[in-house]
Amino acid sequence: MVVGVDIIEVSRIQRAVDRHGQRFLERVFTPAEIRYTRGHGPELAARFAAKEAVSKALGVGVRLLAVDGVDWKEVEVLGNRRGRPQITLYGRAAERAAELGLTEWAVSLSHSREYAVAFVVAQ
């Protein structure tokens, strides 16, 4: 079993959206995540934190910061039909999970006006 956790200031993500708009959204989030969150800062921040938490659980970080890391859009966090967040991995993230034998993922997201946090467990 592996875990990953991340916390981020909602204002940091909102500033990036305000400053870079669609370009930022399309660089970090999948089209489905953009539609699902409808651009709400706290929802985007929670998913940003989840992507970071997954990369930590995979032991590689995000490619921007680590040569062997995963890309932002290789980790997708969407709600199921009841709104429960679920993780889907693509590309290098899926390959790394397979290398580690990780087939089951659970994620918990929470946010306030100021912070968003994500906690990930995989086995």
Please describe what this structure looks like.
The chain has 123 residues and is of the alpha+beta class. Helix 1 crosses helix 4. The termini are close together. It has helices at residues 10-20, 22-28, 31-37, 41-57, 91-100; strands at residues 2-9, 75-79, 85-89, 105-111, 115-122. It has a single domain (2-122), classed as 4'-phosphopantetheinyl transferase domain (Ribosomal Protein L22, Chain A, Alpha-Beta Complex), CATH 3.90.470. 42% of the residues lie in helices and 27% in strands. The protein is built from 5 helices and 5 strands; from the N terminus they run E-H-H-H-H-E-E-H-E-E. The radius of gyration is 13 Å and the shape is globular.
Notable characteristics:
globular; three-stranded antiparallel β-sheet; 5 strands; Ribosomal Protein L22, Chain A; alpha+beta; two-stranded antiparallel ribbon; 123 residues
List the helices and strands and how they pair.
Layout: E1 2-9, H1 10-20, H2 22-28, H3 31-37, H4 41-57, E2 75-79, E3 85-89, H5 91-100, E4 105-111, E5 115-122
Antiparallel strand pairs: 1-5, 2-3, 4-5
Helix pairs in contact: 1-4
Short description:
With 123 residues, this protein is an alpha+beta fold. It is built from five helices and five strands. It is globular.
